Amino acid sequence: MLVQAASSYWQAAAAPRPSIYPCLSHAHHSHSLVSCTSPASFLVVSPLLIRASQLALWLLVARSTYPPYHSRPQRALTMAVAAARLLLRVVVLALLAAAQQVVGKSAVLSLRELDGRRRSAATTDTRSSRYYVDAMLAETLGEHKKAGAATSVLELKRHSLTAIPEDPVARDRYLRRLLAADESRANSFQPRRNKDRASASTQSASAEVPLTSGIRLQTLNYVTTISLGGSSGSPAANLTVIVDTGSDLTWVQCKPCSACYAQRDPLFDPAGSATYAAVRCNASACADSLRAATGTPGSCGSTGAGSEKCYYALAYGDGSFSRGVLATDTVALGGASLGGFVFGCGLSNRGLFGGTAGLMGLGRTELSLVSQTASRYGGVFSYCLPAATSGDASGSLSLGGGDDAASSYRNTTPVAYTRMIADPAQPPFYFLNVTGAAVGGTALAAQGLGASNVLIDSGTVITRLAPSVYRAVRAEFMRQFGAAGYPAAPGFSILDTCYDLTGHDEVKVPLLTLRLEGGADVTVDAAGMLFVVRKDGSQVCLAMASLSYEDETPIIGNYQQKNKRVVYDTLGSRLGFADEDCNYV
């Protein structure tokens, strides 16, 4: 009887499964970013046939070779239990194969979690069950598989938006102000135009600090904490600063401040630091280095004691500025300290810096934190931006490491590198080349694809695409996402593609994949695809915007870098990307 059952089972396992590999009859297009579902499905179906064959063969052999001291009922029961276990594994594989489509094609986005509510017990149970299924899949195939390789449920552990006003009118005004500032920053990277244009090897040392959303400090950027100064009589000052790869000079607000905005931390007091010193006017940092970092050389002024200090003036594209004394002091990050660190001691500061104490410059010129620590950390840094915005979840900012510290990253895919491009006209910035794009697995064709010098910036929030590329992304996103019948909602600020998702806790979101020079593919996390304007889901927008002209500089903003390990190897002139769950607790 068991042999007959095994034979029937093998025949059933070998029968065609059109729901599992519906694309076997279609040609495979090697030039597409994402192929048809047949290769991935066939790789899963093959183990099914192998397991089924093994089961049938095992049952035939076991009947004749089982030890004679086992009774017939014992042998039958033991073989039945073993067969049931193998059958369960086959069923699990079949279910996963049926569910998995193209890798990086789409993801299920939980709007409830994106809006900041904690996971329910049911969600936790579901996640535990998924881990059990993943473990069984790994055991059956003889190797570990990434959970949800083709589709995944976005589970933001803590994504609280409590810092954003609850009142709809106040929330609207608040978000519009932040996005308007982001637009001004993005515009500052573009070349100036006439008014009538409309008609036309690394080291092993490393340090790591937590990196969190700045939403609680009234900014959409990401922040970390540094320690500055200190002496035997007083501890160093802990200061929360914005992390910005598009700036070079690190600065903080200082006493005595003539015009400072409100910040959460106490103002840094130079008088309380035994290692603080003002940079002199004749120092090289006050001339060429400061000019490269800020666009303006330092100016000199005489104090009552006759000493000449170097004064800096730094202006940003959104109208923000910081002015003060260029100084040196000891800075500490993640337990590692650096003496003689050059920074700006801001005495007059204004702008949309929220409640932070200032800004950390991670650009490419001599005064950036990266360059000043290059002798120790080899000019390498990386970050992992968390999708969650609650205060108890954070990503990380790492200095140093490179390939030697790859094991210290928590990435779930290998780091894929592309060439880092320098623009002499814009020395502080990091550029790369994008050669292709796909939405939900559908490759796009657009005039702007293949253009060089795409800026990657942690200080810009929303990604800006060339008009032709944005139109292609938008059209394909609307085709796939709109197929579910979600009603359209009015646009918001710079975001023009919005939906009313009222009553939907989870939605399936087609993901944007960018192909970089050298073949590396970067797929935007589901949390980086949609921007929730209204907490009730009545206005949720595609989190990308269009540039005004084709020849302007595209920008990959921090919103689309969530849950990615982004590695900057300045000496090796390369940028690396890997998937990583950045919501550390």
UniProtKB/TrEMBL annotation:
Single Gene Ontology MF annotation: aspartic-type endopeptidase activity
An individual GO BP term: proteolysis
Keywords: Hydrolase, Protease
Region (Disordered) residue spans: 186-205
Gene3D superfamilies attached to this UniProt entry: Acid Proteases
Residue ranges of domain Peptidase A1 in the record: 222-578
UniProt entry tagged with the keyword Protease: yes
Alphabetical list of PROSITE patterns matching this protein: ASP_PROTEASE (PS00141), PEPTIDASE_A1 (PS51767)
Active site (record annotation): D244, D457
Coiled-coil spans in chain: none
Protein name, per record: Eukaryotic aspartyl protease family protein
Organism: Zea mays (Maize)
